[in-house]
From TrEMBL:
Its EC number is 2.1.1.198. GO terms for molecular function: rRNA (cytosine-2'-O-)-methyltransferase activity. Residues 4-203 form the Tetrapyrrole methylase domain. GO terms for cellular component: cytoplasm. SUPFAM superfamilies: Tetrapyrrole methylase. It catalyses: cytidine(1402) in 16S rRNA + S-adenosyl-L-methionine = 2'-O-methylcytidine(1402) in 16S rRNA + S-adenosyl-L-homocysteine + H(+). Pfam families: RsmI_C, TP_methylase. The gene is rsmI. It comes from Pseudidiomarina planktonica. Keywords: Cytoplasm, Methyltransferase, rRNA processing, S-adenosyl-L-methionine, Transferase. This is Ribosomal RNA small subunit methyltransferase I. Catalyzes the 2'-O-methylation of the ribose of cytidine 1402 (C1402) in 16S rRNA. Belongs to the methyltransferase superfamily. RsmI family. It is found in: Cytoplasm.
Amino acid sequence: PGILYIVPTPIGNLGDISERACAVLAEVQVIAAEDTRHSGKLLSHLGIKNDLLALHEHNERDRSEALIKRLQAGESIALISDAGTPLISDPGYVLVGQCRRAGIKVVALPGACAITTALSASGLATDRFCFEGFLPAKPQQRRKRLQELLTETRTLVFYESPHRIVHTLEALHEVFGEQRGCVLGRELTKQFETYLTGTVAEVLQQVTADSNQQRGEMVLMLAGAEPAAHTELPTEALHCLKLLSQELP
Ligand code: SAM
């Protein structure tokens, strides 16, 4: 059988693709891409000519079976997404799962990923962290998820969209209080790469004061909870305490 290669592509700066990634993209029989038009541009920039087929969240289940057949017939396939590492808030989970169950070799190349890029420059603790992906879009569900994370002691990492950043920072302010450390990494590896750092209140202030800070791609990070302070109390109790303390003089 052939090999399924998981190939990271740049998250902005085109120089961030590896030599090995280029070699794999050139030598496989076909490249499965989230958006073939978008990836076609990257391949032509790299001077790589190869066949592309679409594998996105809406057709992944159907397409995976056909791809497994091709792999079993001896073809090798590269999986790429629009940016960064496939499967990290991107398609590929179904295909890789099916390959594993069918005994097909899966080889992942290391490369660009917004999580590690943002975290390594954040100044927040990196020894233990928790990637939460995108928060739910609906305010109530978003708040519920944040409340569940209130006592998490690991650094929290979220992907966030520019339309929701202000609402999310407001929700963080409400749930975590204004003192929690916060870093917003924006447009990483690109021309307007920015890190806003401070407390949740300070980052919220910077983002609301300048609408440019509400643009582009962003990774939001939050310091973990202080371990000792919260060990005995359940999240609900802490939340009640917080509400009560706001009412006290
Ligand atoms: N697979 C990608 C990766 O490895 O990071 C992530 C794909 S996810 C659909 C897209 C989200 O990743 C964006 O909404 C943003 O939160 C984050 N992201 C991607 N590129 C970024 C960049 N250059 N700067 C900041 N965040 C980025």
